[in-house]
Amino acid sequence: MKKLLIFIVGIATATMLLAPLQVTAQTKSRLAQILERGTLRVGTTGDFNPMSMKDTATNTLIGYDIEAMTQLAADMGVKVEFVPA
Fold first, then answer.
1. Distances (CA, A) of 23 to 5, 11, 12, 35, 78
2. Per-residue pLDDT tens for 4-45?
């Protein structure tokens, strides 16, 4: 009985120690996903002046957040896509 308990504890310990290694190897970083997709998706409400707001004359988003994310996407070499948050 004691050998069985030691065996079970050993298996449980090995599983807990090795499980994070497998998960890390399978998932890509967020940056890698963005670069692979070619699009930086940014959530914005478009109603928080001066950070992000919708220009009714041109029907486009403007503001500090919009400019910053547009420049970030350009620096990364990807397109920017603004999605409703």
1. 27, 18, 17, 21, 27
2. 778 787 787 878 887 776 655 568 899 999 999 999 999 999
User: How many other C-beta atoms lie within 10 A of the C-beta of residue 70?
Assistant: 16
CA distances from 65 to 6, 12, 27, 42 (A): 57, 47, 29, 10
| Count of CB atoms situated within 10 Å of the CB of 72 | 13
**Residue written as tokens 């050998």?**
3
Residue 43 structure tokens: 């959530």
